[in-house]
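Why run this: before we spend reagent on co-expression, it is cheaper to look at a predicted model of the complex and decide which construct boundaries make sense. The entries below are exactly what would go into the expression plan.
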Amino acid sequence: MCGPADFGALHTSLARLAALFAGGVTTYVVYKIVSLCRERRPERGTHKEAAYDLLRALPVQGSGERPNS
Amino acid sequence: MKLSAASPKEIALGAALGAVGAAIFLFAFPAGSISTLVHDVLRLPGPGAGIALVFGPFLVFVVLLSSLVTQANGEALIAALAFGISCTLLVHAFGVRTGPAGAFGSLLFLAAVVALGLAVEVVLVVGRAFPRAWHCVLAGCVANAVLLVFYWLVIFPRTASWVRWKDLPLLMGICLVGGLLAGYLVWLVSQPLSRALALRQKE
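The model came back. Tokens follow.
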């Protein structure tokens, strides 16, 4: 056996384990939210770029037409 | 599972995981908490119940996780060594109180931790044929058993007492179940972690 019982130490240990677990869960949730936000940002950017490309392409098509005279 | 030679970055990651594991262990389990839990709450015989049920599985988790996340040769040994050295430094430099039976911070403790790291390393290399989950469970069981037997033969005769023959089956059973659970938990955790690390390396 390893010495007398120390229930104070056991309570401290349980409280610290609970705090570590809560910290771990919070970190994971924050990490997930940040990674989800990062995944969504480029998608919006690509939609915008596609729209700009379409707008740029319009005058190019127009200028290619020959005038009716 | 393929293991490659460890790069300096992977060595640093393994050492960091070992050091953080040691700090968390000393913070989460102050002196007397493990022995009170196993001997006074769970009524388990000793010596060795705390090693089999708490310290061994915790160490298996840290060491095996660092090896699986980096997937490099020698990573388990590096993490184990970092864990042992960090524990020794924290105990001696900051005066962290630990249970006397565990001999935390001594050379024998360092040897026990390295023995566990070596056991994980050997199982990871030898048991490549097994599926990854079985591989982890096997490594956990073998490593925890090696740590407990080392404590029984080398450390406990000096710090506590010899283990009684009638307590051997129960303590070894607890040790194997603890190692099994730790190995399985590592397998569960390592998959998303290694995916996230691989993605970050690609970026």
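The radius of gyration of chain A is 31 Å. The CA atoms of residues 51 and 57 of chain A lie 10 Å apart. Bring this page to Monday's planning discussion.
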